[in-house]
Design brief:
lipoprotein; cell membrane; 3 helices; methylation; G-protein_gamma; mainly alpha; prenylation
Length: about 70
């Protein structure tokens, strides 16, 4: 029984390795250049970089309500 379990685990490992070997890879320098280009193109839309307009900020301090 132990040898069947071991054989099954080995087959799963081989299938996983085949799957990982078939993944398309690119050079780190190419990935870094593409990431830099993406950041430069989309940086003006990033709320962490440009801030959130006060009117549309869901986390702004609540206004106080005063009854007169």
């Amino acid at each position: 029984m132990s040898s069947n379990s071991n054989l099954t685990n080995m087959r799963r490992s081989v299938e996983q390795l085949k799957l990982e070997a078939s993944v398309e890879r690119i050079k780190v320098s190419q990935a870094a250049a593409e990431l830099q280009q993406y950041c430069l193109q989309n940086g003006n839309k990033d709320a962490l970089l440009v801030g959130v307009p006060a009117g549309s900020n869901p986390f702004r301090e609540p206004r106080s309500c005063v009854l007169v």
